[in-house]
Amino acid sequence: MLKLRDGFSVIEALIAVAILSIAVIGLVTTIGTFSSTTVDRTVLNCLVDAASTALYKCQAGVDSNPNSTCGGSTISIAGTSGYCAPATGTCTTVTAVATASPQGKTVSLTTQICNFN
């Protein structure tokens, strides 16, 4: 007479653990990649916002704060190059450079500021 076995053998349990381990490693790798991509996008958005704000403040004749914090990064504005208040009837090119620490990423935005008064 055949006797029915109850439970799993050690080999079956080891195979199940190996398959589960491979799935968990794949999931952890995907989460790590996603989080680093999200941080990079957040830093890039902060840099663009900071440089854009510096250009708007230059155009309005307001001094911009050279440092700010965004997304856990320190954003530094190197200043705007170009003259923010051109003579009447002329335009000037102005550039703002924003750098994120500690990532070392940099964004440079350039615009034309015109005075038609």
UniProtKB/TrEMBL annotation:
The chain crosses the membrane at residues 12-34. Keywords: Membrane, Transmembrane, Transmembrane helix. It comes from the Bacteria. This is Prepilin-type N-terminal cleavage/methylation domain-containing protein. It comes from Candidatus Nitrobium versatile.
